[in-house]
Design brief:
homotetramer, about 400 residues, alpha/beta, eight-stranded parallel barrel, 10 strands, about 45% helix, globular
Chain lengths: ~400, ~400, ~400, ~400
């Protein structure tokens, strides 16, 4: 018996999940970054690895860059390299948290010279975007303070608006700015964009090309994330997702690994709110494969999103609406859970094969010998990580 | 050595903290409501008790009502009764969580008839406000769902907007609507106004007379509440506070009891953002004295707010700004903490006496024999609680 | 293709999940208890409702009692009544949180007379257990304090030991005491048995007949509950489960409703540690059906536990152990997730039918007209709730 | 008016707070480690800096070492160097989280060879302790897993016991093992010693020389830490504190900075339970000065502990016990809060001067020019951090 209708499979054709270049480099905790043989040494090798994920899944046609980690002399060459491998360059992520000047802030800093430097960095990113063909400039603001009294929260918020306004003014007509919020870390008392409300009021003050980025790992314990998805879609301000999962803080685990049912609920609200297969709402991964293999970690991740999207698309929305209207609590919940509990994997495997893809992308990649090959070939040099 | 300057004492003259009538009735948990002798049986007795708090502190000139708990035949008489006791009637709080019709929502309900009923209840509250002379209609929306799938989050949000719009249209020129948000409880999966962002976008869509109410106990674990205070003041949308404190969930303990330093930080941001002694930003208590005496519990609470306001007013803001500008983390924090650690109580006691108040309001009230008197006099009848 | 082997189905035959009598009465939050037609008015009617759950599932052969809520004149008659309906009386739950004397504690109270009363209540429970044929006396200690300084934490802990020792001494040879811990509520500053560690050290000091009760809703945010399951089984001290689920605090929702994957992980550790189908480890529900129908809510709950047990039993433990040993992070996780994602419901439906049970117990019960019948028949009297 | 009696000042004479050598090196988050001029390049320079803290406060006579970060060729020489500067070498901290072999565990690893290596590391630490004259071997077990299914929780717990037993057997007669627990990080699904209960059962299984280490930043949100202090003292198993403070996760901020009232409550329970000025209960700092100056950060920290200890010692314990016994909630809380709100700083300043110490150690250190001197002198070499 088939669980996925042709309509659902048709919807799944539109799914695209951007990969972060940095997921292919080494990452870790403040205590230790473990390295693995074969880890890319430069942006080209990262893109080569990312292309493997798309090759086996057709789910990840674009790769996000991080500047300066992915700085190259010639972005046109990088772009062509990517396209030869069947992928495009996507969102450009700025970085204002690793320069010594940014110790006490960047776009919010008390000192105009530091703000100038941080704004200029973003303008440089926009310049790169023109070369890479990227639409979105993603700003995660790792700014805040560690001790009460250390910083003037209000002044920083006002300065943030001014800095963002200047960056916004630099955007091309087809470009967007997406502003990410985060509950805490690396700052431990206050963060300048700690919640969706702050990101929303900041981007709303900029204009139509500014949107909110929702990272699924950046919330307080217990937060109902699908509610925020609903609200931002309702407000027309959900620009993109950074998918990952967490048990505690910003754990950056594989999406769907910690709470698959939460991912299901999020994807349901995306669909419910018109955010699915909507170019205005970008799906991206933002994860750290601290201890597991990176390329398979990314394959697993995009498959998790695909499988859960298939489940969410399977909800009998008419029956659900009827149960909701009639106050049938257990009935509505049962319709919802039925879709979650239905195993869509056999149908997806068959569908993949019908499209010339391996039924089991994880197994196919493992069998390809790619990991062994890069471990042998990529000898010498410095493995990529989060260092500048 | 005096720690509080005449300027600070002058600022303290303007402090007013509204008391909730329901704090004088019985309250408890879902497991048990303990009663005490002398508990009021009607709104008049609640106001009499509230007036005691103001008598010994001059800090609580108004009393908030809750409809229907405080319904009376003649609000003019209630108002006159209060004024005879030196207090006024303040904010009117609506109630859409105790009628069987509201089991699945009120202003957000799927059924237009239920929404009609809930809207009409608010219009009735506005009518009462005209009689009581109240400015603010406070709406705490105890609506949500317990199970994923049970409710259509998006539809409810839209209906909430429609319902609020109709209530807003009914406000008098000098009246306001304040919309309270709450993280969870009594609903356990989703709440329709769970965070400041949602309250903000809902009231912003209404107009200038709609504001956000911030209850200090209604946030996720770890939330930086003073940041929200800062942001709402910056946006011109902080309408009122519900003060209380918490260790876990919405514990409704005495303000300042669980984390006095947090109260200090909140009050600092109120002052920093121009929200202190600003009639647009109302200070209220919203607490439950489940096991402690109620009137002394309220006296303790307003004194806690006063003492912590005095500390926050004592911060050397010029030195603080200089330290902040120069990136002197420990220096800025030390200036901040110095004000927190300075004992303002002796100065406040002397100041109280200079204004004809008891140096120690707790002791003076205890010595008055009021609690014993009401225990003897209020015999028979039904003690007030949270029942309608 | 069948997913559940005969061995797994054989294991499932041993599953028994005790129902709480109070789940069939009304419950709610401190804000409102909604009532429904047909709610039981006495312990007999509660047992009749509980028997319905077992009739359609063969999963709940016993019913837990709560004293004094379920006090009757003749327990022998209650026991016979239950047995006529195919169920037995199970765990007896004591109550030391609803008497005015217990406002500041019961087994931990400063006053020996109050402790005496609380101990005697437990001895009375043991006496009832002899009549009902119950093995387990469950103690949930709703004791604590709301304000720092209010209580002497250490003295209370020592008095708790003394009180428990006296109760323990009163147990019959085949009887056990299980001590439940809870993070918070109804006390909001400290709780006398707030975590598994405290429950463990208290029962370890009593002897072999004292065990820990783990309520899945009684932990701090983010707690890894399956780790605690593992540890208590390792220590030989896991006496029983109170199953339910939560998004925020002690929400008491249907087990598996909030985080099905967590339930899967818990059940895996139960099996891994030898706690499944082990008479020493009792499975119970402890839930509140505040807004949904109660009997279907209980049927849904036992089915959730059964379905998730089937998934957990399906894990390929040999392959898992091999992947764990070899440090194959993604491989081990994939084996684990495969069992979680496999849809066991069709096999379970077929197996139910093979045993003379309805394939879909929810539908069969709905079709039975029982709810309509009790709504018509149970007219007059006072509906059961949490009042004494 | 003096607030601190001679008895209290006498008690304060016994206070000693061990400093961590690593607090003087660079630290940061996974995103960035900021460096500062003058940061020590070797263990000798760290000890020189630590000695400064003691010089201005007489509060920190010992310095904890971390192996291998503080490995030297000649520990006798390091010990003599410290003693020349007026301090001793204290607790030795092991490290089993930075070697590639420990990616999947150390003392709990599936592979006996890895466990052997980790055990041998601890035996080497014990050998070093004999040379440094240290009493305590502190084990923080940074072991766990990131994904459900990745690890066999139960097997790891059993192997942990075996490994610890072997280490315990290697202790000298006067030596102790203290086992630290931590809620999460660097592992994000499970941690092998996540809570006090696990640490307690592991050390209880070893013997009298094994104790629990309580790091104040290592708990779930909302955890009542003073309760754990009470319980561990009651069980005779509180071996040491790692002091720091947090708003979110393991923020490692200056002790008392995030929640001064919590520090007060903790110290009260230490005193209440006989843990103050008790050599069996070691006070240590474990903090990261990511953005603030390190030596002043440590001075501020020990002063915070001293000031809060003075407040906690000032509680009128007789009056408190009487209020507790009589159920006077507000009275007991008022006595408790009175001590917290009393400003002990003037008395402490005077007392310091009477002992030949600066009234204001922060100012005196700043005036000394030490920071400028080391910035000039410590040029070249590699600044110490968390790298091996």
């Amino acid at each position: 018996m088939s669980t996925l209708t042709p309509e659902i499979l048709g919807e799944l054709e539109h799914q695209a999940i951007e990969l972060p270049s940095w997921a292919f480099g080494n990452s870790g905790t403040r205590f230790k970054v473990f390295s693995t043989p074969g880890t890319p040494r430069d942006p080209f090798e990262k893109i080569a690895d990312a292309a493997q994920v798309n090759r086996y899944t057709h789910l990840s046609p674009t790769v996000a860059l991080h500047i300066p980690w992915d700085k190259v002399d010639n972005y046109i060459r990088l772009r062509a390299y990517a396209e030869d491998l069947g992928v495009s360059l996507g969102t450009v992520n700025s970085n204002t948290f690793q320069d010594d000047d940014y110790k006490f802030g960047a776009l919010t800093h008390e000192d105009a010279a530091v703000r100038r430097k941080a704004i200029d960095h973003h303008l440089e990113c926009i310049e790169i975007m023109h070369q890479t063909g990227s639409r979105d400039l993603k700003i995660w603001l790792a700014e805040g303070s560690n001790y009460p009294g250390q910083a003037d929260l209000r002044g920083r918020q006002d300065r943030l608006h001014e800095s963002l306004s200047e960056i916004y003014a630099g955007l091309g007509d087809e470009q967007r700015l997406v502003l990410e919020y985060k509950f805490f870390e690396p700052a431990f008392y206050h963060t300048d964009v700690p919640d969706w409300g702050t990101s929303y009021v900041q981007v709303a003050a900029l204009g139509d090309k500014a949107m909110v980025c929702l990272d699924t790992g950046h919330h307080a314990p217990g937060t109902n994330i699908e509610f925020i998805v609903m609200q931002l879609l309702r407000l027309g301000k959900l620009g993109s997702f950074d998918f990952n999962s967490r048990f505690y803080a910003d754990d950056d685990l594989i999406v769907g690994a910690a709470d698959p049912f939460q991912l299901f609920r999020i994807l349901y609200e995306v669909i419910r709110g018109g955010g699915y297969a909507n170019p205005d709402v970008a799906f991206m991964l933002d994860q750290c494969h601290n201890i597991e293999d990176k390329i398979p970690g990314q394959i697993r991740s995009v498959l998790n999103v695909q499988e859960m999207t298939a489940r969410a698309l399977s909800i009998d929305t008419e029956a659900l609406a009827a149960a909701q209207k009639s106050g049938d609590v257990l009935g509505a919940n049962a319709i919802f859970m039925d879709a979650f509990y239905t195993d869509v994997r056999p149908d997806l495997a068959a569908w993949r094969e019908s499209r010339g893809l391996p039924a089991d992308p994880m197994a196919a990649f493992a069998a390809s010998g790619y990991l062994q090959r890069i471990a042998e070939e990529r000898v010498g040099g410095v493995q990529a990580g989060w260092g500048a």
